Give the backbone structure.
Amino acid sequence: MISEVGKYLLVIFQAFKRPDKGRVFRKQLMIDFQALGVSSIGLVAFISLFTGGIIALQTAYNIDNPLVPLWLIGYTTKQMMILEFSPTIISLILVGKVGSSIASEIGTMRVTQQIDALEVMGINPANYLILPKITAAMLYNPILIVFSMAVGLFGGWFAVVVTGQVTSVDFIDGLQSFWDPFSITYALIKTLVFAFILASVAGYKGFTVQGGSVEVGKASTQAVVISSILIIVFDLILTQMLLT
Amino acid sequence: MIEVKNISKSFDGQQVLNNISTTFEKGKTNLIIGQSGSGKTVLMKCCIGLLNIDEGEINFDGRLFSNLKGKSQKVVRKEMGVLFQGGALFDSYSVEENVMFPLNMFTSMTLEEKRARVNEVLLDVKLENVNRKYPSEISGGMIKRVAIARAIALNPKYLFCDEPNSGLDPKTAEVIDELISELTEKFQMTTVINTHDMNSVLQIGQKIAYIYKGQLWWEGDHQGILNTDNKELNDFVFSTELTRRLKFSK
Protein backbone atom coordinates (compact mmCIF):
# COMPACT_ATOMS: atom_id res chain seq x y z
CA MET A 1 0.00 0.00 0.00
CA ILE A 2 2.74 2.50 1.03
CA SER A 3 4.92 1.43 -1.90
CA GLU A 4 1.94 1.89 -4.25
CA VAL A 5 1.42 5.44 -2.92
CA GLY A 6 5.13 6.08 -3.40
CA LYS A 7 5.01 4.84 -7.00
CA TYR A 8 1.92 6.98 -7.63
CA LEU A 9 3.69 10.08 -6.29
CA LEU A 10 6.76 9.37 -8.45
CA VAL A 11 4.65 9.07 -11.60
CA ILE A 12 2.67 12.22 -10.78
CA PHE A 13 5.93 14.05 -9.99
CA GLN A 14 7.22 13.05 -13.45
CA ALA A 15 3.92 14.12 -15.02
CA PHE A 16 4.10 17.59 -13.49
CA LYS A 17 7.47 18.47 -15.03
CA ARG A 18 7.60 21.22 -17.63
CA PRO A 19 6.34 19.92 -21.02
CA ASP A 20 9.04 19.43 -23.68
CA LYS A 21 7.11 21.54 -26.18
CA GLY A 22 4.30 23.91 -25.22
CA ARG A 23 2.67 23.69 -28.64
CA VAL A 24 2.53 19.89 -28.50
CA PHE A 25 1.11 20.04 -24.95
CA ARG A 26 -1.62 22.48 -26.02
CA LYS A 27 -2.54 20.27 -28.97
CA GLN A 28 -2.74 17.23 -26.70
CA LEU A 29 -4.82 19.24 -24.23
CA MET A 30 -7.34 20.11 -26.95
CA ILE A 31 -7.59 16.44 -27.93
CA ASP A 32 -8.22 15.52 -24.29
CA PHE A 33 -10.81 18.30 -23.89
CA GLN A 34 -12.73 16.67 -26.71
CA ALA A 35 -12.17 13.09 -25.58
CA LEU A 36 -12.77 13.58 -21.85
CA GLY A 37 -15.00 16.65 -21.65
CA VAL A 38 -17.06 17.44 -24.72
CA SER A 39 -17.95 13.79 -25.29
CA SER A 40 -19.38 13.61 -21.74
CA ILE A 41 -21.88 16.47 -22.16
CA GLY A 42 -24.69 14.23 -23.43
CA LEU A 43 -24.37 11.72 -20.59
CA VAL A 44 -24.13 14.46 -17.94
CA ALA A 45 -27.16 16.28 -19.40
CA PHE A 46 -29.29 13.12 -19.52
CA ILE A 47 -28.48 11.97 -15.99
CA SER A 48 -28.77 15.47 -14.49
CA LEU A 49 -32.09 16.20 -16.20
CA PHE A 50 -33.75 13.03 -14.97
CA THR A 51 -32.17 13.09 -11.51
CA GLY A 52 -33.23 16.71 -10.99
CA GLY A 53 -36.77 15.66 -11.92
CA ILE A 54 -36.70 12.64 -9.61
CA ILE A 55 -35.37 14.65 -6.64
CA ALA A 56 -38.08 17.29 -7.10
CA LEU A 57 -40.87 14.72 -7.48
CA GLN A 58 -39.75 12.63 -4.49
CA THR A 59 -39.53 15.77 -2.35
CA ALA A 60 -43.02 16.79 -3.50
CA TYR A 61 -44.52 13.35 -2.76
CA ASN A 62 -42.98 13.31 0.70
CA ILE A 63 -44.36 16.70 1.69
CA ASP A 64 -47.93 15.97 2.72
CA ASN A 65 -48.11 18.37 5.63
CA PRO A 66 -50.09 21.47 4.54
CA LEU A 67 -48.01 23.58 6.95
CA VAL A 68 -44.83 22.93 4.96
CA PRO A 69 -44.47 25.59 2.25
CA LEU A 70 -44.33 24.34 -1.35
CA TRP A 71 -41.30 26.48 -2.22
CA LEU A 72 -39.35 23.99 -0.09
CA ILE A 73 -39.46 21.59 -3.07
CA GLY A 74 -37.40 24.01 -5.19
CA TYR A 75 -35.11 24.76 -2.26
CA THR A 76 -34.45 21.07 -1.53
CA THR A 77 -33.82 20.28 -5.20
CA LYS A 78 -31.37 23.17 -5.43
CA GLN A 79 -29.44 22.17 -2.30
CA MET A 80 -29.23 18.52 -3.31
CA MET A 81 -28.14 19.25 -6.86
CA ILE A 82 -25.56 21.91 -6.00
CA LEU A 83 -24.11 20.52 -2.79
CA GLU A 84 -23.97 16.83 -3.52
CA PHE A 85 -25.45 15.41 -6.69
CA SER A 86 -23.65 17.44 -9.32
CA PRO A 87 -20.14 17.55 -7.81
CA THR A 88 -20.05 14.08 -6.27
CA ILE A 89 -22.39 11.79 -8.18
CA ILE A 90 -21.52 13.24 -11.58
CA SER A 91 -17.81 12.92 -10.69
CA LEU A 92 -18.42 9.26 -9.79
CA ILE A 93 -20.19 8.75 -13.11
CA LEU A 94 -17.29 10.44 -14.91
CA VAL A 95 -14.88 8.08 -13.13
CA GLY A 96 -16.70 5.20 -14.82
CA LYS A 97 -16.64 6.84 -18.24
CA VAL A 98 -13.50 8.96 -18.32
CA GLY A 99 -11.33 7.18 -15.71
CA SER A 100 -11.67 3.77 -17.33
CA SER A 101 -11.03 5.33 -20.73
CA ILE A 102 -7.80 7.02 -19.53
CA ALA A 103 -6.53 3.85 -17.81
CA SER A 104 -7.25 1.60 -20.77
CA GLU A 105 -5.84 4.06 -23.33
CA ILE A 106 -2.55 4.58 -21.47
CA GLY A 107 -2.42 0.90 -20.41
CA THR A 108 -2.76 -0.24 -24.03
CA MET A 109 0.01 2.17 -25.01
CA ARG A 110 2.19 0.61 -22.31
CA VAL A 111 1.65 -3.03 -23.37
CA THR A 112 2.09 -2.21 -27.08
CA GLN A 113 5.43 -0.47 -26.34
CA GLN A 114 4.15 2.96 -27.44
CA ILE A 115 5.29 4.37 -24.07
CA ASP A 116 8.71 2.71 -24.54
CA ALA A 117 8.86 4.39 -27.95
CA LEU A 118 8.24 7.79 -26.32
CA GLU A 119 10.87 7.10 -23.68
CA VAL A 120 13.62 6.11 -26.13
CA MET A 121 12.86 9.24 -28.15
CA GLY A 122 13.85 11.18 -25.03
CA ILE A 123 10.29 12.28 -24.22
CA ASN A 124 8.94 12.18 -20.66
CA PRO A 125 5.97 9.84 -21.27
CA ALA A 126 4.20 10.60 -17.97
CA ASN A 127 4.33 14.29 -18.75
CA TYR A 128 3.23 13.82 -22.37
CA LEU A 129 0.35 11.45 -21.59
CA ILE A 130 -0.90 12.18 -18.06
CA LEU A 131 -0.47 15.93 -17.56
CA PRO A 132 -2.80 16.97 -20.43
CA LYS A 133 -5.45 14.58 -19.12
CA ILE A 134 -5.24 15.91 -15.54
CA THR A 135 -5.31 19.49 -16.86
CA ALA A 136 -8.25 18.76 -19.18
CA ALA A 137 -10.21 17.09 -16.38
CA MET A 138 -9.52 19.93 -13.91
CA LEU A 139 -10.50 22.60 -16.43
CA TYR A 140 -13.46 20.86 -18.00
CA ASN A 141 -15.10 19.06 -15.07
CA PRO A 142 -16.11 22.33 -13.31
CA ILE A 143 -17.84 23.39 -16.55
CA LEU A 144 -19.61 20.03 -16.71
CA ILE A 145 -20.65 20.28 -13.07
CA VAL A 146 -22.10 23.80 -13.40
CA PHE A 147 -23.88 22.59 -16.53
CA SER A 148 -25.18 19.59 -14.58
CA MET A 149 -26.53 21.90 -11.84
CA ALA A 150 -28.40 24.05 -14.37
CA VAL A 151 -29.83 21.07 -16.26
CA GLY A 152 -30.79 19.30 -13.00
CA LEU A 153 -32.66 22.33 -11.69
CA PHE A 154 -34.43 22.67 -15.02
CA GLY A 155 -35.33 18.97 -14.84
CA GLY A 156 -36.74 19.46 -11.34
CA TRP A 157 -38.80 22.49 -12.40
CA PHE A 158 -40.09 20.69 -15.50
CA ALA A 159 -41.10 17.53 -13.62
CA VAL A 160 -43.06 19.22 -10.81
CA VAL A 161 -44.68 21.83 -13.02
CA VAL A 162 -45.79 19.34 -15.68
CA THR A 163 -47.18 16.94 -13.05
CA GLY A 164 -48.86 19.84 -11.22
CA GLN A 165 -47.14 19.20 -7.89
CA VAL A 166 -46.22 22.82 -7.48
CA THR A 167 -46.51 26.03 -9.47
CA SER A 168 -43.61 27.43 -11.41
CA VAL A 169 -43.58 30.50 -9.15
CA ASP A 170 -43.33 28.42 -5.95
CA PHE A 171 -40.52 26.27 -7.38
CA ILE A 172 -38.51 29.28 -8.55
CA ASP A 173 -39.17 30.98 -5.21
CA GLY A 174 -37.58 27.93 -3.57
CA LEU A 175 -34.57 28.09 -5.88
CA GLN A 176 -34.01 31.71 -4.83
CA SER A 177 -34.53 31.15 -1.10
CA PHE A 178 -31.55 31.22 1.29
CA TRP A 179 -29.15 31.61 -1.63
CA ASP A 180 -25.56 31.18 -0.49
CA PRO A 181 -22.92 31.75 -3.22
CA PHE A 182 -20.44 29.70 -1.17
CA SER A 183 -22.45 26.61 -2.16
CA ILE A 184 -21.11 26.99 -5.69
CA THR A 185 -17.55 27.62 -4.44
CA TYR A 186 -17.82 24.52 -2.23
CA ALA A 187 -19.10 22.43 -5.13
CA LEU A 188 -16.33 23.65 -7.46
CA ILE A 189 -13.57 23.01 -4.90
CA LYS A 190 -14.86 19.45 -4.53
CA THR A 191 -15.06 19.08 -8.31
CA LEU A 192 -11.44 20.17 -8.78
CA VAL A 193 -10.21 17.70 -6.17
CA PHE A 194 -12.33 14.89 -7.65
CA ALA A 195 -11.14 15.69 -11.18
CA PHE A 196 -7.51 15.47 -10.05
CA ILE A 197 -8.17 12.13 -8.32
CA LEU A 198 -10.03 10.78 -11.35
CA ALA A 199 -7.39 11.65 -13.96
CA SER A 200 -4.26 11.05 -11.87
CA VAL A 201 -5.28 7.66 -10.47
CA ALA A 202 -6.49 6.44 -13.87
CA GLY A 203 -3.33 7.78 -15.54
CA TYR A 204 -1.12 6.11 -12.93
CA LYS A 205 -2.91 2.75 -13.18
CA GLY A 206 -2.64 2.78 -16.97
CA PHE A 207 0.96 3.95 -16.94
CA THR A 208 2.16 1.17 -14.64
CA VAL A 209 0.40 -1.76 -16.32
CA GLN A 210 2.58 -4.81 -16.90
CA GLY A 211 1.46 -7.70 -19.05
CA GLY A 212 -1.22 -7.83 -21.72
CA SER A 213 -4.86 -7.11 -22.41
CA VAL A 214 -6.08 -8.87 -19.24
CA GLU A 215 -3.89 -6.62 -17.10
CA VAL A 216 -5.13 -3.54 -18.98
CA GLY A 217 -8.70 -4.55 -18.12
CA LYS A 218 -7.75 -5.10 -14.48
CA ALA A 219 -5.98 -1.74 -14.34
CA SER A 220 -9.04 -0.04 -15.76
CA THR A 221 -11.28 -1.66 -13.14
CA GLN A 222 -8.84 -0.80 -10.34
CA ALA A 223 -8.70 2.80 -11.54
CA VAL A 224 -12.49 3.08 -11.27
CA VAL A 225 -12.69 1.36 -7.87
CA ILE A 226 -9.80 3.30 -6.28
CA SER A 227 -10.93 6.65 -7.69
CA SER A 228 -14.52 6.06 -6.49
CA ILE A 229 -13.36 5.19 -2.98
CA LEU A 230 -11.03 8.21 -2.84
CA ILE A 231 -13.77 10.53 -4.10
CA ILE A 232 -16.18 9.38 -1.40
CA VAL A 233 -13.50 9.67 1.31
CA PHE A 234 -12.44 13.14 0.13
CA ASP A 235 -16.10 14.17 -0.11
CA LEU A 236 -16.44 13.54 3.60
CA ILE A 237 -13.15 15.27 4.43
CA LEU A 238 -13.91 18.33 2.28
CA THR A 239 -17.46 18.60 3.58
CA GLN A 240 -16.12 18.62 7.14
CA MET A 241 -13.42 21.15 6.24
CA LEU A 242 -15.52 23.52 4.14
CA LEU A 243 -19.02 23.43 5.62
CA THR A 244 -18.42 23.23 9.34
CA MET B 1 30.16 2.54 -32.89
CA ILE B 2 28.59 1.15 -29.75
CA GLU B 3 30.81 -0.58 -27.22
CA VAL B 4 29.30 -2.89 -24.63
CA LYS B 5 31.77 -3.67 -21.86
CA ASN B 6 31.30 -6.39 -19.23
CA ILE B 7 27.61 -5.76 -18.68
CA SER B 8 25.53 -7.85 -16.32
CA LYS B 9 21.86 -7.69 -15.46
CA SER B 10 19.76 -9.65 -12.96
CA PHE B 11 16.04 -9.72 -12.18
CA ASP B 12 15.09 -10.80 -8.65
CA GLY B 13 18.40 -12.59 -8.17
CA GLN B 14 18.24 -14.38 -11.52
CA GLN B 15 21.14 -13.45 -13.77
CA VAL B 16 19.91 -12.70 -17.29
CA LEU B 17 23.06 -11.12 -18.75
CA ASN B 18 26.45 -12.29 -17.54
CA ASN B 19 29.54 -10.20 -18.27
CA ILE B 20 28.80 -9.47 -21.94
CA SER B 21 31.30 -7.48 -24.01
CA THR B 22 30.94 -6.73 -27.70
CA THR B 23 30.98 -3.89 -30.23
CA PHE B 24 28.37 -2.86 -32.76
CA GLU B 25 30.07 -1.31 -35.74
CA LYS B 26 29.16 1.79 -37.73
CA GLY B 27 27.69 1.29 -41.21
CA LYS B 28 27.06 -2.39 -40.52
CA THR B 29 24.02 -4.49 -39.62
CA ASN B 30 24.94 -5.97 -36.25
CA LEU B 31 22.75 -8.90 -35.27
CA ILE B 32 22.06 -10.22 -31.78
CA ILE B 33 20.76 -13.77 -32.04
CA GLY B 34 19.76 -16.36 -29.49
CA GLN B 35 16.93 -18.57 -28.33
CA SER B 36 13.88 -17.12 -26.63
CA GLY B 37 14.83 -16.33 -23.04
CA SER B 38 18.55 -16.13 -23.81
CA GLY B 39 18.70 -12.46 -22.84
CA LYS B 40 18.96 -10.77 -26.25
CA THR B 41 15.94 -8.49 -25.71
CA VAL B 42 17.27 -7.53 -22.28
CA LEU B 43 20.62 -6.71 -23.90
CA MET B 44 18.92 -4.45 -26.43
CA LYS B 45 16.78 -2.77 -23.75
CA CYS B 46 19.95 -2.09 -21.77
CA CYS B 47 21.58 -0.57 -24.86
CA ILE B 48 18.67 1.82 -25.49
CA GLY B 49 18.37 2.71 -21.81
CA LEU B 50 14.98 1.13 -21.09
CA LEU B 51 16.69 -1.04 -18.46
CA ASN B 52 19.55 -0.05 -16.15
CA ILE B 53 22.53 -2.37 -16.11
CA ASP B 54 23.87 -3.77 -12.83
CA GLU B 55 27.53 -3.75 -13.89
CA GLY B 56 29.63 -2.70 -16.86
CA GLU B 57 29.30 0.17 -19.30
CA ILE B 58 27.81 1.05 -22.68
CA ASN B 59 29.56 3.64 -24.84
CA PHE B 60 28.06 5.41 -27.85
CA ASP B 61 31.01 6.72 -29.87
CA GLY B 62 33.01 7.17 -26.69
CA ARG B 63 30.13 8.65 -24.65
CA LEU B 64 29.39 6.63 -21.54
CA PHE B 65 25.62 6.25 -22.03
CA SER B 66 25.02 3.87 -19.13
CA ASN B 67 26.07 6.56 -16.63
CA LEU B 68 24.24 9.45 -18.26
CA LYS B 69 21.11 10.92 -16.68
CA GLY B 70 18.57 13.58 -17.57
CA LYS B 71 19.47 15.99 -20.36
CA SER B 72 22.80 14.34 -21.27
CA GLN B 73 20.99 11.03 -21.73
CA LYS B 74 18.35 12.78 -23.85
CA VAL B 75 21.03 14.06 -26.23
CA VAL B 76 22.16 10.50 -27.01
CA ARG B 77 18.59 9.23 -27.14
CA LYS B 78 17.73 11.76 -29.83
CA GLU B 79 20.44 10.15 -31.94
CA MET B 80 18.73 6.75 -31.66
CA GLY B 81 15.96 5.32 -33.78
CA VAL B 82 14.17 2.28 -32.43
CA LEU B 83 11.97 -0.15 -34.31
CA PHE B 84 9.90 -2.07 -31.78
CA GLN B 85 8.64 -5.60 -32.33
CA GLY B 86 5.04 -4.59 -33.02
CA GLY B 87 5.96 -1.26 -34.58
CA ALA B 88 4.65 0.70 -31.55
CA LEU B 89 2.96 3.26 -33.80
CA PHE B 90 0.62 5.65 -31.99
CA ASP B 91 -2.86 4.27 -32.72
CA SER B 92 -4.62 7.63 -32.61
CA TYR B 93 -2.22 9.24 -35.10
CA SER B 94 -2.19 8.83 -38.87
CA VAL B 95 0.91 7.55 -40.66
CA GLU B 96 1.96 11.13 -41.39
CA GLU B 97 1.43 12.22 -37.77
CA ASN B 98 3.40 9.21 -36.51
CA VAL B 99 6.40 9.97 -38.72
CA MET B 100 6.10 13.69 -37.99
CA PHE B 101 6.01 13.12 -34.22
CA PRO B 102 9.78 13.26 -33.56
CA LEU B 103 10.02 16.28 -35.89
CA ASN B 104 7.30 18.04 -33.86
CA MET B 105 9.06 17.28 -30.62
CA PHE B 106 12.67 18.02 -31.51
CA THR B 107 12.83 20.41 -34.45
CA SER B 108 11.61 23.90 -35.22
CA MET B 109 10.77 23.04 -38.83
CA THR B 110 7.72 24.61 -40.46
CA LEU B 111 4.75 22.42 -41.31
CA GLU B 112 5.76 22.38 -45.00
CA GLU B 113 9.31 21.35 -44.13
CA LYS B 114 8.03 18.62 -41.84
CA ARG B 115 5.64 17.33 -44.52
CA ALA B 116 8.48 17.27 -47.04
CA ARG B 117 10.68 15.33 -44.61
CA VAL B 118 7.85 12.87 -43.88
CA ASN B 119 7.36 12.23 -47.61
CA GLU B 120 11.11 11.84 -48.04
CA VAL B 121 11.47 9.17 -45.34
CA LEU B 122 8.29 7.41 -46.46
CA LEU B 123 9.86 7.18 -49.91
CA ASP B 124 13.04 5.83 -48.30
CA VAL B 125 10.97 2.97 -46.90
CA LYS B 126 9.13 2.63 -50.22
CA LEU B 127 5.72 3.82 -49.04
CA GLU B 128 3.50 6.21 -50.96
CA ASN B 129 -0.06 7.47 -50.58
CA VAL B 130 -0.49 6.21 -47.03
CA ASN B 131 -0.05 9.54 -45.21
CA ARG B 132 -3.70 9.83 -44.18
CA LYS B 133 -4.13 6.18 -43.17
CA TYR B 134 -4.17 5.01 -39.55
CA PRO B 135 -2.11 2.07 -38.22
CA SER B 136 -5.27 -0.05 -38.03
CA GLU B 137 -5.80 0.47 -41.78
CA ILE B 138 -2.43 -0.79 -43.01
CA SER B 139 -0.75 -4.24 -43.14
CA GLY B 140 1.84 -5.59 -40.69
CA GLY B 141 4.66 -5.06 -43.20
CA MET B 142 3.57 -1.46 -43.79
CA ILE B 143 3.40 -0.84 -40.03
CA LYS B 144 7.04 -1.97 -39.77
CA ARG B 145 8.01 0.32 -42.64
CA VAL B 146 6.20 3.30 -41.11
CA ALA B 147 7.94 2.52 -37.81
CA ILE B 148 11.30 2.49 -39.63
CA ALA B 149 10.39 5.81 -41.28
CA ARG B 150 9.59 7.30 -37.84
CA ALA B 151 12.85 5.89 -36.46
CA ILE B 152 14.98 7.49 -39.20
CA ALA B 153 13.06 10.79 -39.43
CA LEU B 154 15.66 12.62 -37.32
CA ASN B 155 18.63 11.07 -39.16
CA PRO B 156 19.71 8.87 -36.24
CA LYS B 157 23.27 7.65 -35.82
CA TYR B 158 22.08 4.43 -34.20
CA LEU B 159 19.19 2.22 -35.31
CA PHE B 160 17.89 -0.54 -33.04
CA CYS B 161 15.42 -3.09 -34.38
CA ASP B 162 13.73 -5.57 -32.08
CA GLU B 163 12.67 -8.61 -34.10
CA PRO B 164 11.79 -6.62 -37.21
CA ASN B 165 10.49 -9.73 -39.01
CA SER B 166 8.22 -11.15 -36.35
CA GLY B 167 4.70 -11.79 -37.62
CA LEU B 168 5.63 -11.21 -41.27
CA ASP B 169 5.54 -13.63 -44.18
CA PRO B 170 8.99 -14.67 -45.56
CA LYS B 171 8.76 -12.39 -48.61
CA THR B 172 7.80 -9.29 -46.61
CA ALA B 173 10.43 -10.20 -44.00
CA GLU B 174 13.05 -10.21 -46.76
CA VAL B 175 11.86 -6.80 -47.96
CA ILE B 176 12.21 -5.39 -44.42
CA ASP B 177 15.68 -6.93 -44.06
CA GLU B 178 16.84 -5.44 -47.35
CA LEU B 179 15.37 -2.10 -46.42
CA ILE B 180 17.19 -1.98 -43.06
CA SER B 181 20.40 -3.08 -44.73
CA GLU B 182 20.05 -0.42 -47.47
CA LEU B 183 19.27 2.36 -44.99
CA THR B 184 22.20 1.34 -42.78
CA GLU B 185 24.59 1.63 -45.69
CA LYS B 186 23.01 4.80 -47.11
CA PHE B 187 23.01 6.74 -43.83
CA GLN B 188 26.06 4.99 -42.29
CA MET B 189 24.16 4.16 -39.12
CA THR B 190 25.19 1.72 -36.42
CA THR B 191 22.34 -0.75 -36.75
CA VAL B 192 21.63 -3.37 -34.10
CA ILE B 193 19.02 -6.02 -34.92
CA ASN B 194 17.64 -8.45 -32.42
CA THR B 195 16.38 -11.50 -34.28
CA HIS B 196 15.97 -15.25 -34.40
CA ASP B 197 15.09 -15.26 -38.08
CA MET B 198 17.72 -17.40 -39.78
CA ASN B 199 17.09 -15.86 -43.21
CA SER B 200 18.04 -12.46 -41.75
CA VAL B 201 21.10 -13.97 -40.12
CA LEU B 202 22.38 -15.45 -43.36
CA GLN B 203 21.40 -12.52 -45.60
CA ILE B 204 22.25 -9.34 -43.72
CA GLY B 205 24.35 -10.46 -40.74
CA GLN B 206 27.52 -8.42 -41.23
CA LYS B 207 28.33 -8.89 -37.59
CA ILE B 208 26.58 -11.49 -35.45
CA ALA B 209 26.63 -11.93 -31.68
CA TYR B 210 25.17 -15.19 -30.39
CA ILE B 211 23.82 -14.99 -26.84
CA TYR B 212 23.46 -18.28 -24.99
CA LYS B 213 22.12 -18.44 -21.42
CA GLY B 214 22.94 -14.78 -20.87
CA GLN B 215 26.51 -15.02 -22.12
CA LEU B 216 28.16 -13.98 -25.36
CA TRP B 217 28.82 -17.42 -26.82
CA TRP B 218 30.04 -16.64 -30.33
CA GLU B 219 30.82 -13.67 -32.56
CA GLY B 220 31.39 -13.53 -36.30
CA ASP B 221 29.64 -12.87 -39.61
CA HIS B 222 27.19 -14.78 -41.79
CA GLN B 223 29.98 -16.65 -43.54
CA GLY B 224 31.53 -17.63 -40.24
CA ILE B 225 28.26 -19.04 -39.02
CA LEU B 226 28.23 -21.56 -41.87
CA ASN B 227 31.68 -22.83 -40.95
CA THR B 228 31.58 -22.74 -37.16
CA ASP B 229 31.92 -25.87 -35.08
CA ASN B 230 30.37 -24.24 -32.02
CA LYS B 231 27.89 -26.90 -30.91
CA GLU B 232 25.34 -24.63 -29.23
CA LEU B 233 25.33 -22.21 -32.15
CA ASN B 234 24.97 -25.03 -34.67
CA ASP B 235 22.10 -26.52 -32.64
CA PHE B 236 20.38 -23.13 -32.69
CA VAL B 237 21.04 -22.00 -36.28
CA PHE B 238 20.79 -25.38 -37.99
CA SER B 239 17.88 -26.72 -36.01
CA THR B 240 15.77 -27.58 -39.07
CA GLU B 241 16.35 -30.17 -41.78
CA LEU B 242 16.51 -27.42 -44.41
CA THR B 243 19.25 -25.43 -42.65
CA ARG B 244 21.22 -28.61 -41.86
CA ARG B 245 21.21 -29.41 -45.60
CA LEU B 246 22.44 -25.88 -46.28
CA LYS B 247 25.36 -26.31 -43.90
CA PHE B 248 26.15 -29.75 -45.30
CA SER B 249 26.12 -28.42 -48.88
CA LYS B 250 28.71 -25.81 -47.87
